[in-house]
Amino acid sequence: MEQLKITGNPDIRLNGDIRIGGAKNAALPIMCATLLTHDPVQLRNVPTLRDINTTMKLLRELGVSVSELEHDKVTVQAYGTISTKATYELVKTMRASILVLGPLLARFGEAWVSLPGGCAIGARPVDQHIKGFQAMGAQITIEHGYIHAKAPEGGRLKGASITTDMITVTGTENLLMAAVLADGETVLENAACEPEVTDLAKMLVSMGAKIEGIGTHRLVIQGVEQLHGTTHSVVPDRIEAGTFLCAVAATGGDIRLTHVDPSIMTSVLDKLTEMGVELELGENTIRAKMTGRAKPVNLSTTEYPGFPTDMQAQFMAVNAIASGASDVTETIFENRFMHVQEMNRLGANIVIHGNTAHTEGVEAAALSGAVVMATDLRASASLVILGMIAEGTTTVDRIYHLDRGYERMEEKLMKVGAVIERVRSAEEA
Ligand SMILES: CC(=O)N[C@H]1[C@@H](OP(=O)(O)OP(=O)(O)OC[C@H]2O[C@@H](n3ccc(=O)[nH]c3=O)[C@H](O)[C@@H]2O)O[C@H](CO)[C@@H](O)[C@@H]1O
Ligand SMILES: C=C(OP(=O)(O)O)C(=O)O
């Protein structure tokens, strides 16, 4: 198992350019959407991530032809015999595998997808996906740990009016991918409008889908009989970008992010400004200058365009060394404070009360390096941020979580001044 060994320094400053990759959370549904046509689909700005590899493996296991990922381009073609079964072995390593359910069911009339288990940040049920497919006429049964979905007589889903109980990102994406090939009109109320959902919707439109209300909480879809191939460039990763901005907010310095889209990052950029980061926004660039100690910020996670839960841990890392107290409330997931204990091991002062974490900011010099355990993707990133500042060596263990969503994060950070080494854990070396 690999670890990151970070040589921390309270006086570290990050300086230079960082190129941001395509969004994991857009690339995953988009790759699954290639199942909706037998034509080739060319994707660009696809990030090199563990979850992308898993998706490529999953598609190949289904019989889809998937080229190698060259730089950031991949060509996918779901032509010929396609299996409709996504096995537990792959689904257990990536919950987003559930996103093959909608396209398989819509195009082939049947799908078997292993039920994803619980995970570090909460139970994360998929009942809303199932409820939506049922409304479209699918028969759903749970057999041997698998969701078995079958379209009505004739093999085609029927358009329906669906209101999900809560806003769900992958739920909206799954139902949207099913609706584009259904018979008739589907109305998705309470739909997620995260930029990654919008990117998927735009890609589907470029394949011939008929979708109105893109970017809103109400999607109206007129099902078509067939979709065709397309070329699509994945939207920039606003969470990767936000993570590097938090890094500079914590360390100080002057960095410039390239290949970003600031227009989809307003809530995060506003909070960084409140912390004292000076931002200069270009069309596809963000320059961030930070001098002095960060001001603490209160925040509460919520759906887009509100503050994203996927940025909560990274902001808490900055709050940990900010010049005062702050409260961070998590409203999306029931158990997304696993980083708190590890941050406290580095010297932070954070106490959890229900779904709020109260932080008393400490001086950067009060932190000291330690062995910490990454428990989920963004928790890992937040520990890397604090590890760069904590005097001495911080070892971040279990970085396979980090590699799920960050393209060689340590290389990008080293380019701007961090001292980080990727090593094999002692037991294995
Ligand atoms: C691959 C991907 O895009 N992952 C993102 C996606 O996850 P994901 O799509 O899994 O998250 P959801 O938006 O579905 O979850 C929101 C809330 O709804 C609940 N829920 C969801 C579906 C359902 O059928 N039943 C149910 O109860 C979840 O447990 C959670 O409490 O959106 C999250 C919220 O922005 C992000 O943190 C994840 O990074
Ligand atoms: C929680 C996340 O991803 P996933 O839904 O793939 O677990 C994330 O990207 O922070």
Automatic annotation (TrEMBL):
Query: Active site located where?
Result: C119
- Which organism does this sequence originate in? Ephemeroptericola cinctiostellae
User: Which named protein is this?
Assistant: UDP-N-acetylglucosamine 1-carboxyvinyltransferase
Domain of life of the native organism: Bacteria
Cellular localisation? Cytoplasm
Q: Which residues carry this modification: 2-(S-cysteinyl)pyruvic acid O-phosphothioketal?
A: C119
Q: Which GO terms describe its cellular component?
A: cytoplasm
- Which intervals hold domain Enolpyruvate transferase? 13-413
Q: Which reaction does it catalyse?
A: phosphoenolpyruvate + UDP-N-acetyl-alpha-D-glucosamine = UDP-N-acetyl-3-O-(1-carboxyvinyl)-alpha-D-glucosamine + phosphate
Question: Recorded E.C. number(s)?
Answer: 2.5.1.7
Return the SUPFAM superfamilies for the record.
Answer: EPT/RTPC-like
Kindly give the CDD domains that the UniProt entry links to this protein: UdpNAET
Coiled-coil regions listed in the entry = none
- HAMAP family named in the record: MurA
Tell me any Pfam family this protein matches: EPSP_synthase
Q: Sorted alphabetically, which InterPro entries does this protein's record hold?
A: Enolpyruvate_Tfrase_dom (IPR001986), Enolpyruvate_Tfrase_sf (IPR036968), MurA_subfamily (IPR050068), RNA3'P_cycl/enolpyr_Trfase_a/b (IPR013792), UDP_GlcNAc_COvinyl_MurA (IPR005750)
